[in-house]
Amino acid sequence: MSVFATLGSALSQAADLIEPLFGASATAAAIILCTLCVRAALHPLARAAARGEKTRSAHAPRLAELRRTYAKDPQRLREETAALYAETGSSPLAGCLPALLQLPVFFVMYHLFTSDGSGLLTHTLLGAPLGGHWTQALADGGLVGPHGLVYLALFALAAAVATWNYLRARTTMARNMATGAALGQAGPADGGPADGAAVPGLAAMTKMMPLLSFGTLVSIAVLPLAAALYLVTTTAWTACERALLHRDRDRKRGQDGQDGRDGDTSPARTAG
Q1: Which of 194, 256, 196, 253 is nearest to 63 (CA)?
Q2: Would you kindly state where each structural domain of the chain is located, as residue ranges?
Q3: Is residue 255's pLDDT more than 60?
Q4: What is the pTM of this model?
């Protein structure tokens, strides 16, 4: 028996258990609960990835100083950078491995909710078939028909999460640009990486990155409803998880920014 058949059978059994609570939508509820359980099980990996990101952020000023000092001596720069990582016991890839380890799990979950072999797609959510698509819902009852309303609710939730992610990403980019300017290095505003080397198209790509969150809306429109449920659930979990794991860093940055404004004694500031 394949892993997909095993997971599909387990989900069917879970749906049977909660059917008294959710009725005909028990399978859809089981998909959401299964997604939450899987993300909870992967949370230690997410915490490890967050620690890696914090480590890289903590070393960014020293790395920027090394790049400025040895800008004309690449060999010495590599040696000093390696020495810094050895001294701090970190790695330039800190946090990447935990994130990569999650990818196979996400692939399995995605395949499970887009494949007819599991038998899950024959069930419904408030009458809308889990194997159906938005175009079918529009054909069956229109945008505000019984099936269309299910998709509208998913679109609304996905849009709210995407907007939150977008605003957080914009704020982070603005802080990174301010930090880069303070350190005298090229940043996203002028298309330069941390070491100041020009990379064509980097500025445009950096500006586009926050908009990728809205790609979830496109996915909901083209994927089966079961996969859309999984995608919205896991995306919402990721947004909440990142806010939780990085709350200390965000709070510190906010306090630093407030302290900077309070301590500003420039003529423009004191004139009023």
Answers
A1: 194
A2: 3-256
A3: no
A4: 0.74
